[in-house]
Amino acid sequence: MNDQLLAAVSQYGAPALFAIVAVAAVGVPLPITLLLIVAGSLISQGAMNLWWAIGAAGAGSILGDQVGYAVGRWGGTAAIDKLSHLFGKHADLPAMEAKAAAWGGPGIFITRWLLSPLGPWINLASGTARYPWRRFLAWDALGEFTGAALFIFLGRLFSDRVMALTAVLGDLTWAIAGLLVSLVLGYRLLTYLRRQR
Predict the structure, then answer these.
(1) Exposed, middle or buried by CB within 10 Å (0-12, 13-18, 19+), for 74?
(2) What integer pLDDT is reported at residue 77 of this predicted model?
(3) Considering the entire predicted model, what is its pTM?
(4) What does the buried/exposed string (b/e) look like for 106-139 if buried means 16 or more CB atoms within 10 Å of the residue's CB?
């Protein structure tokens, strides 16, 4: 599937990038980081326009995120239960809502580009938690355009080493996620030990 997606972007350019990124933002697991890096490589070869690529990737992601937010806001728990069964995952809605409320705007921002696998679930949780739509849209747009520009510029800069860069970024994302989980667990352990005293 990766080869077909990459071929579509190289053949159709920004419109294909827009469509693929929008579908991924709704929650379909697609290799978007790789796609954006390859788009940057295509830009360095003169096959795509830099600003059209950033605009298409950012706008497609925002559109997909808005769909997720709308499903959470107006579909409620019944729609989320159906979606979680469709994707083979169980959604712990109260926990997601609590995280969305605790993280707020910065959480939305960081799950657009650094912790992107959490993005679709944060979209749903933000909708069900009734996070204000204008604030959600502002943080969403800021995060999506930041991520699109970052990965496309990296692909442009390292156009001759795209696969190596993708592997390093994937490892870095998991390392940061592991560090965040360790910090949260460490904080909870300290809180528990203090309560025991």
Answers:
(1) exposed
(2) 72
(3) 0.78
(4) ebbbbbbbbebebbbbbbbbbbbbebeeeebeeb
